[in-house]
Amino acid sequence: MPLTTPSRRSPSRRSLLAGAAGATGAVLITGCAGGGGAPDADSGIALDRRMREGAVRDSERLLERYDATLAAHPALAERLGPLRAAVAAHTTALASADPAAGKPSPHPGPPSPSASGGAAPAAGAPAARKEPVPEQPAEALNALAEAERDLSEARTIALGGAPGELARMLASVAACGAVHAYLLTSTPGAAS
User: How far is CA 105 from the centre of its chain?
Assistant: First the structure.
């Protein structure tokens, strides 16, 4: 009899609630741990900026994954459209929350097709390490769910070192990513 391994496709409600509770606790601890001294203010701003820029890049890469999946599987547009829009909003919010960064990243609309039929690359996003989109729609949804899950977990881990306001934003975006992973694998029509 073959051994089966548990699937990572859809987290239980209990694990989603536990993750949200952990993220909230980390936000509260981080938000309450205020540094009263001005000497560390410059290093706090530099840390905030570096972490925020990394979070924007991560969101841009995820947005590129959505765009590539939509280009490869146009029939998934209705299902992926709202999730892609949320990722675009996260990218804009993370970029615009940093007053020193200038204007936010331009990702509010759907992907624009290129001459080859694929999605146009995101402005300023690195072109390296592009993941191929699986040929089967169900596998493509699972790949997106895995990308959402991985980024959500990474952001939850980053909460511990993030300054207060950024920690709150990362917690919110991480929770949303966990919900996206769940929706991509558990709604009707999802891969089994």
Answer: 15
